Structures
1.
Amino acid sequence: MSNTDKATLAATQSRRPPLYRDATVLKWLAQVAALSLVVFALYFLVTQAQSNLAKKGIATGFDFLSAPLGSDLSSGIDTDPDTSGRALWVGMVNTIRLSIGGIIVATVLGVVVGVGRLSSNWIVKRISSVFVETLRNIPLLVQIILIFVVISTLPRVEINQGPIPGWLHISNKGVSVPRVFISDGFYQWLIVVAIGAALGWLVMRRRSRLHDATGRDTYPVASFVAVTAAFAAVGWFVHPVFGWVGNVFDGLASGIGALTEQTVQILLSVAALLVAVLWIRRFLAQHRSPAGRAKLSDDDWFRVIFAGVVAVLVAIFVNIGWPGLSSWIINSGRDLFEVLGDKFGDGRTGQPIDAKRPDIEQPGNFPNYGPAGLNLTQGLAAVYFGVVFYTAAFIAEIVRAGILSVPKGQTEAAQAVGLRRLTMLRRVILPQAFRVILPPLGNQYLNLTKNTSLAIAIGYSDLVQVGETIYNQTGKTVEVVSIWMLFYLTCSLTISVVVNFFNVRLKIVER
Amino acid sequence: MAEMRPVDIAAASPASQTAEEAVSLPPEQPSTPPREWIRQNLFSTPFNSALTVVFGLLVLLTARGLLNFTFSEEREWDAVRTNLRLLFTHAYPEEQYVRIWVCVGTIAVLAGLSVGLAATTARGVSVKRLSSGLMALGAVVALGVVLREPSALSNADGSVRRNDSGVIRESFAEAMVDRWGWWLAAALLATAGAALWFRFGDERRRSTFVPSVELFMGVTAIVVLSAWVYPWGHYAFTDGEFIAEPGRTVAMSTKLPWTVMWLLLAVALAAGRRLRQAGAGSNFTLALNLCWLACPFVLYWVVLRDPDLDWDRVLSVDIPLGVLFAAGGAAVLWLLTDQRIGELGRIIAALLLGLAAFNWVAAFWGWYPMLQKVRLSFLLVALAALLAHNFAGDRSKRLRLLTVWAVVMAVFHYMATLMNSPSSVETPTEAFVGGFGVTLVVAAFTLLLSFPLGVMLALARTSKLPIFRVMSTSFIEVIRGVPLITVLIFFTIILNLFLPDGMEISVLASAVLGYTLFSAAYLAENVRGGLQSIRRGQFEASDAVGLTALQRTIFIVLPQSLRVSIPPLVGQAIATFKETSLLAVIGLFDVLRMANNVIPAQTEFLGVKREGLLFVCGVYWIFAYSMSKRSQRLEKQLGVGER
């Protein structure tokens, strides 16, 4: 091959194709076009919505949150809230309580049923599979409504009625059981418990290292529990010592309240730019050759430019396009710390946790449940039992599949090295099964939380039902729906972060 | 029971026989005598014995409670029997009812053909299980007769006789004598089982299999025949308001249609099998699948809705437009599939895309008005032009492409015209069918529309293009993070606020839209699981043989990944089907709303809810359970995780 041939070859290789045939350019063109299409469509829809709403005489904005609400809620921490914002808060608390209570009971029930499906007893096996197959093949909404209707047609409330008077009452008004509730001084006590748990964790780590080093039984988990319990017991009496924590929160609240809007806007812009700069720095560092020179392909250049442009746009938008954001951040931050300051405040010296038994009162002609017990109204009972049974059926399947997924050889090997049956379960089978169970289990927790929104069908005041009441009165559908979505997204995110944390810890460390 | 004779079936379908043999049979288990079985499974340890006793009692008590509840004289099952039509089709006009039968018939024919054409490897139920099942069913019926409390005595007017302490009941002995019909049924079932057992004398013949298709046809035949004998329900007249009227029974008027439907199913099944034996299966399967795809649209928009075409407009506007786009598009495609066109083709395609996009922008500013379907047609032309170079080839290849294009245009303009025409069927609600019908319609449309969307989302999420990935990921995660009900409320209530003047979207359409987006996000995650299971070597191999990215996706990646994700996809389909019950919350008259709100508002059945709700539970359960069983079998057939 002659020199000129080589030169032309090199020239053709290095010559770039025209722009309209360059794959990288085209790809980015298509992506930016798609993105601008979406942004344009959203912009179009939002302007339409604004003009349509203006025609109907409905102003947009979140000021309705502080306006009074015309109707009562069916149940919750405050059945006659002053404002719509307070009503939504009550709905959120109802949703959260329903979800947490549901998750705990559904897990227990699901594990029992799932293990029951693998039982060697024919009747237990059959009952468990009938339970699962019946519940998971009927829509949850139908189940909830059916439970609601069945509870509503039960006998009326009477004095001294119930399967176990004073402990458990069941009637057309729902179910009433003993109530355990947090009382004055709970939050200070929580601080003591948290300190105990932190110390206990240190002790546990030390003891398990000792166990690894020497092989002696050091009972790490038991010592963790013991330390925490000791702190909790002592804290029961000494918790008023921590009254000063409230003042710290109060100070934070006034500090945030003193910020000006400009400061927050500048901080937000700086944060956006900072994130972009950090991302680009890391990106460049990853693409550095051993000699220290950054080697970037065209595609990488596009990425860097795109990240920079987006950051600048966000920084401008925060300052010009959305001035209300900063005042909202200031207000909600101040409110949050004020609430915390109140909860942790001085002068709350009572007992942290209290309990009461249910009672039945007769103020007029008709007896009804008194305020002492934990009263599951028809709606609450229907949603609660509905989601618990439905989710338990799915959890049972997950648990069963998890246990079945542990290879038989593991059991046989454990038996061969002479482990006792319980040790084998605890050390060999359950850890491996749990690894398979955890991710889908987290999904079920998410589903349970989302499914509590079906309460809207039977009028139990969870977040969605309260929201519906509010937009029926004020017409603020867009705002209410965005509050719903934000709330549920936060819940989902929280649950998946927690599940992921355990998931990462349980993962097999691969080489 | 002529259909169930396994010998005939084995003789009739040698193909299925060979397929059965190909499946490796599990080793035969030696059968344990009943006494040994009871000892092993119920009383193996003291703890197990205690469990058996406790849970056995629990089962008996629960069964007794359920029986007493279901057969109590206070239950008003008439609320369900009278309103069967309301529950299944809402207020579809009586004189147009033949349209519903046409729909059912079409589905029956398609289902029959599909099942007949499919080379089944499912073995069905062994004679042994069938006969012991029949005997056990007889025993359960007898047990139920004994368990249920004696019936209440009634007065001459049919009301329950009471005294101070409650309802007056007959004695136990009288009750047992009164229930002679149930005893007879139990005896018949047990005898049938025993006859089957002894007819197939030895163990080997008892393990002959009755294919599940034949079993299904047999059971449905019995159900259909029973409509000629037993009145399953009454009529509900919907004269402005819902009034229940006893008298003519639903069974009396539907026995003939149901018989026809059953015969259609049987004939289609036989025809499908004949076609498969003749070796014509693969050709027909494609046509059949296209029919399945088209059937929801055609059945809902054409058959049920019966559009009232304005012929003047059709002749002057719609047909010319359709012809124009078919011809113009064909000309463009002919030009672009020329192998010599090269770079120019891409430029033309890009310009067309720009024009199509500009039509929408112009609509936003209100510059020049045009029909929506014209804008869509322009978009279709541009998309076809973009893909055209993939089909470049000789004359016959290009002509085939043009034919496909003409058919697509014809179908598109036909459906658009139909959708724009008013309906001639008068119903009180905007959905043409209510009750269980609307559930099926929404579920069918949702599945059909969400599948392609879900696949696209999954591809975008796994692609190397960062903006597409981020957009798809955020869409999927946002939708998966919020409850369905909020999505549905968004689409049914808020969407109309977002639309420009003069554009409106019906509740049903927006509900389908909401369901589709919701279901697509979940489908996308299932498909993504499948996409991730594809080995790197597949990509490298397809690069090595020089496939383009599009070809690689269509011919290599998707077929493999979709096969892996079939079980979760079926699971998602079941979930979507169950979620359709939320239609009741957003104001559509689905079967749940019928049972929970409409029937309890009738004067005859004021406040009667539990019966209807139990019925709804039953309907949903039958559908969802059979689907999940089918998917489990499918999973085994596909051998996912075993290859």
2.
Amino acid sequence: MEAYLGYFLYLLSLLTVGGIYAIFALGLNVQWGFAGLFNAGIVGFAAVGAYAYALLTTAESPFHIGGFGLPLPIGMAVAMALSALIAGVIGLICIRLRSDYLAIATIGIGEIIKLILKNETDITNGPRGINKIPRAWEHFSEERFYSSAPMSWIATPEQWGAFFDSLPNWYWQPLFAGTILLTVYILYRMLERARLSPWGRMMTAIRENESAARAAGKDVTRRRIEAFVIGAAIMGLGGALFAQHLRLIEPTNTFDPSKVTFLVWVMLIAGGSGNNRGAILGGFLIWTIWSASELFISGGIALISSTFETLDPSILATRAGFLRMMLIGILMQVILQRYPGGILPEVRPASPKAVKTTAGPTGDDT
Amino acid sequence: MWDAFGFEFVNFYFIPGLVLGCIYALGAIGITLTFGILRFANFAHGEIMMSGAYLTWTVMAIAGAAGLTLHPLVAMVPAAALVIILFLGTDRFFYKPFRKADTIKVVMASFGMMLIIRSAVQAIWGPNQITFVPGIARPNATLQSITGDMGMMILMPNKHIWIFAGTLVLVVALGYLLGRTRIGKAMRAVSDSPDLAHVTGINVDMVIRATWIVGGICATAAGVFLVMDTQMLETTMGFRMLLPMFAAAILGGIGKPYGAVFGGLVIGLAEELSAYPWIGDAPLLSPGYKTGVAFAIMVIMLIVRPQGLFKGRSF
């Protein structure tokens, strides 16, 4: 029974993190899949969301500014708004130029955000990061939540304490995973709606043939900025959920561009850019491959180091981690060249009456 | 004039700024040529620089094992050859398939290459810092005594003199190549108008190869100069250089190698001088934000003059 519980919790954690990555991939899908905007600074928007959420919802702390102890949904809403605001400024500057400039500017803003988080030690506690970030559902068992307003109306703090003691310590895990899956589903429904609406069809038109869309009287720049801002807001939400999952965030290792930005790109391209289902599928699939390969690698290293005594397993482990990153990079190149449509190729948002047709399988769909 | 102010300003801010500027300039040459001729922003350029420095270190280590002490500038030559092969191989297998497609696909491919190259270097050489040339760099004694007699003492270690000389040689050679040789003129022609160049019978594939070769040599030199300056190798240095190099290329105008050199010097100086205590005693900008200076300059250029100072290409 114990063993099954372990598998169950592992599955839940796969779903949790996979779901968070699916949210990032959905955000990127709005920017890249819908509007063809290259965002190379996903990590920056995620970090803004995570830090905004963390600073607003943690209990008061001497290490960083505030710890304002606000309710969790407010933290998440501000995370989205702040991320969207930064995207709006970047969009106003760069979107009228060619996509390469946007890529350079976003990779820059990603680095600058991390630089600010690292250097403004009074606000963010610098490289030491923020800890004890409240995680949805688990936070109910913290004393400051059950002894204050809404929860204290139902029962006394002592009763709540006894209640949470009677629950198994993983009680929040299914609930948290469920919340994330629900968020993914709601986002999916909203984005699907947007994609099939006139707005979504206009986005496709702009991406496919900008001058024709412009000639038809569409405000190309404005639509692009909209897509960029919406995508960034979704990434900010993803960042807030990421902070909840980790409970401890710091600027350098948590928000490593290769692990956030790049992995999300691989997810979207593998799943199928332009297709919301593809983005979600890519998120879960690549994350499962990524975390399962970690198990295989550590198993392989244990085997190798037990046969060859002279090799140091810790060195092998770090090297193997880089090799894994390299293989993911090569996987991306192969998909990009051979299967540019991804697993679930884009379905063109046709007008409601027309029969839906899939986009061409080759690279001519841009 | 040459009081404590001048001494401190020149030796601790101006000369380091110029050194950094030279490194950025060499890196930006490759970026601006690729952007101008192949028409895409090569994100893997910083990593190529970094791998060039690692290869140079390896050549030095091999020669050291054979009992030979090589100067980094000598060891750089075989390393540059390897980097050129790496560049051409990358182009052949990862960029060429997209040449007819939308350029953003190539940008994405180069984004992927950035990670592949970095992870490969980390897997081969390990993620830890490696010392390049051990020991403390002392100021050049001759220069110090001559300028000291003249009443304006300049403290400049030999490594900085090598960096200045190396950059000068490379930029002059590049000027000769672009201005006097057939292939250089063809490169400029393709950069200005690829269709027109194609019609006049210029071999575009040849020009692209030449671009990678020039970019490879400059990138290796930039990487080696950077580690000569900081005296250590680390795998993230390529990525850290990427943003200032793009800023330099945009500042000078895309497709303009001299613009890139000028832009590199400006960005390097601006980064170092931003830490000078212009007002009061504290640094004007905390040194932690040096990278931000390059980004700020780039953003201002993109707003005010996206074609750069020297009328480069703007897309």
3.
Amino acid sequence: MNQAVIVAMGRSAIGRAPRGTLQYTRPEELGAQVITGVLNKIPDFDVHEIEDVIVGCAFPEAQQGINLGRILALKAGLSEQVPGQTVNRFCSSGLQAIATASYHIMSGQVDCILAGGVESMSTVPMGGNFPAPDPGLTVTLPETYMSMGITAEIVAKRYGISRADMDQFAVMSHQRAAAAISKGLFAEDIIPVQAARPGLDEMGRPGITFQPYSVDEGVRTNTSLEALAKLKSPFQMGGSVTAGNSSQTSDGAAFVLMMSAEKAHNLGLKPLAVFRSFAVGGVAPDVMGLGPIVAIPKALKLAGITKEDLGLIELNEAFASQSLACVRELELNPELVNVNGGAIALGHPLGCTGAFLTTKLVSEIKRRNASPFGVVSMCIGGGMGAAGVYEIIA
Amino acid sequence: MSIYIKKAAVIGAGVMGSGIAAHIAGAGIPVLLLDIVLPQLSDDDQKKGLTLESPTFRKKLAETGKQKVCDPKARLTYSQETKARIETGNLSDDLEKLTSCDWIIEVVVEQLAVKEKLFNTIAPYIHDNAILSTNTSGISIAAISKSLPEELRGRFMGTHFFNPTRYMKLFEIIPGPETRPENIEAMKVFATRRLGKGVVEARDTPNFIANRIGAHGAISAMQLTEKYGYTVQYSDAILGTPVARPKTATFKTADLVGLDIGGHVAQNVIEHASDEAEIKAYQVPAFANRLIELGHLGDKSGSGYYKKVRTPEGTQRFYWDYRKEDYVPLETVKIPAVLAAMKARTPQQRVNAMVWGDDEANQFAWEAVKANLLYTAARAPEIAADFNAIDNGMKWGYNWELGPFEIWDAIGVAASVKRMEDEGDVVPVWVKERLASGKTNFYDAAAIKTPYLNLNASEVTVISENDDAMLKNIGDGVACLEFRTKGNTVTAGIAEMIMDSLKLVEAGDYKGLVLANEGKNFSAGANLAFIMEMISGGQWDALAAAIHSFQYTNLAMKRCCKPVVAAPHGMTLGGGAEMSLHTASQVAHAETYMGLVELGVGLVPGGGGCKELLVRMMEKSGPKTALNLTLATQAAMEAIAMAKVSSSGQNAAELGFLGARDRVCMSQDYLIEEAKRTVINLYDQGFTPNLKADIVVGGTTTKATLQIGLAGMAQGRFISAYDAFLAGKVVHVICGGDVNTGTTVSEEWILELEKEAFLSLCGEAKTQERIGYMLKTGKPLRN
């Protein structure tokens, strides 16, 4: 079996949705700029080498519809010979895209794939433009369509996660993210993009202006336990899951260029990381946040390592309640989880997240003189978990 | 010369000025609201980085006034659209903008010198045909007029609004010495028709009409309270509703108005009066001044004659014990004389019972009423052209149920005059002469003429009637169906009358039918007690028949071959709203509180309301895609499931109860006339009756989508499980049942589903609990 490696990667700064800097930037525009930025990192690479573009997107409709993968290949000006596909596994779509790309490469039938994720939640909201659940399931298994916030409340209750612990977790996420940004730790991964904004020209006529955007804007540097304690749950009357201890809705795009180790060697490209394994698993839809508890052990086993071998863990912070439940249940070392902050501070652009977390994991492990193994994991709406194991190459 | 006010300016953005601006803007007329530029920056301004030149800083006063009055929580505007019609500015940079205003109203501080200076400043910017007015409540119009350039005096007058401007109907017009009569007439018409006000022409005397008589009424009540040694709470229990004054009586009203304001009004009369007795009558008791000294100015300062304290155990209420000079808890006050009077059916009978009884409380009420009648009668010739103006002033400006002269009629003019004289009082000559000439009453019901159509006018004849409704001929080929049930509740008798009326109108020489009444509310809804009775008696077949009859009465109205026009106003709830929604056109008063509120009592609208609101939402929804069908259905569901009630006629349009065929009318007086005119217009323009229409429904996809939303609300405990169950019933009805998305169904099919849902709910214990609770307490139960 061939080895699948990452040779280049990058992401946009994550924008707040639906009222952040990227709110007017269409997902195709955002994705294409990031793809261009990633490929610019390896200027000698010939784009005709790319055999497929796989894009993860959680709500592939409207602006994100009509096969975003192919649209992006064309929009980024790769070549009309470069095909594209869109994959959807909700919040793990970005990681799924990388895993699918890796499988193809490992099988030996394909050598080079551009994979990643794009989500503009400003453009296509959570749930899509028109949620239309199956009439039968709404009666037999309504949890299928349960609001994510309610599932987080159920997890908090079932695992006895206190409001104070959740808020503390959230504050830590913001503090870590703020520290990482001030140290410039994300600078190398971030591809500056031009954000479209409404503006007036010199004659005062309405039109579109562009604004450079390159720093994650979700972090609240000054948040505190006191400030978070004042928030009320929007999901449940008297509940403990609040906007402050949940992930933010966001806009973002992230891509990795993957190829077989041999191809990388032949092209003279230095691999950044090796894709080791990927696993998904199912749980009850009403406790979807517990998905990583199933997925992480499975992925570790496939990679042939144990959790003690992990140097770093990127566990998507969909909600503080489910993150804490997963950390406690899997007995993960909190000091290795989301060391540069998570989705509560930086945002969770659904289909982009798996690819975004991959860039975070790979960059951070490189800085650390520790175990080269890391895992990216997340819970998934509908009751699933996904986990991908990487080995970083020093 | 007629005036047409395209744009108005209000100068002074205090509570009153902003309120006036919002009301005029609410009537659809753009308003320029100006105030001064503040002399210096506040700390807040500096923090925001403002400078003395920043436009934001320079129009801050006007902008603050606008924002306060437009805050939806203040409930002072009809809709959010009002905001867009108010332009703010200041008196230094924006004077040029006054040149485009056709009416300029001054609402600045009550000092002649300030007003003079202001008029001097703005005079050059007032165009040649513009009307200029002052909203002063105390300063002489003649004094202000004198300071104006001569060419402005003919267009200058007093226009006195009452606070809160939206709700107080009174609008006093006070001509100045040189005001041209045609300008007074034009302003009267404008204020009545466009602003919906009740206009009273007042003479240029201190405090004009309502404040003159109202302040006297309040102060004499205070003096008597002290004389009788009553507590403020005890006094208020007698001198409110029992004597046809507002429930807030004397002291609670003072708290609302502000004790200091009340004091200024009294002082203004004292300063201008030469009559010793009058000066005495306006002396407020020492305890009132004491409260002002202590800063207890009423509601605005959090305490006055009454005070509320919120504690964890609930709200505690206190009143000011003026002897102890301290707040003491409210007591339970039961006064036999009051209890007896309150049994009366009309305010006339009530006040009559109150003043003629033998108890001390009766004596107290008599003295208060007498003092005010004598004072009013003595001042009437000086302050108003006729006594009717005074009655209107007190009813529209002070919320009295009856004006002084109506009260006099109610208690018997001859008998009360005799009693007054027996008690040594001097009755004004004109009253005695009137009595001597054989006029035993001030009003002769048969001779009352209104400039607008009223249903009791002598030219209006009754075509037919039953116990619950009357069909009247209101002239020009238009019939009017008037409810006459208590609270105008919808009954079988009304439904029967509608069916008969439709037959008559369709067959006879009529252009159409108006559905209207002159009650406080258009209709409070269905007769709940009647429904409960049938449920308790297990009369399911009869109940089903009643629902069916109501549904098909409304449907017949909708499909009438001649125009049927409703004139909703005030509360138009449940069954009342269902009827109104089925008409060809609704002419709604600006103060219309419309809603399908059946879920509050555990039911769904059962008279075609679910169907009709769905149809209205669907009409606006565009191509019948699954998404559009779902959005329209959702809008109907939310209005019904959340029992949304409009906060105004304009808001009823925003909520979807009024549509393109309907409109809002500012004047309640002219409402029925407007509805009648609409019937005539529709008929004359060639009325196209509604055909049997089919509805494309959302079916199972929409149902599933909405059900998931409801499940989320219930899981989040934002609604009770029973609320979700009830809303689910609504969803089932308006999705057309279990059918494919996009299926075409008949109106009758939705009615069938509606009836089925209604009847099934009648059998639910929790619905029965809700109905029982509502009947007992008048409040909804959330079980």
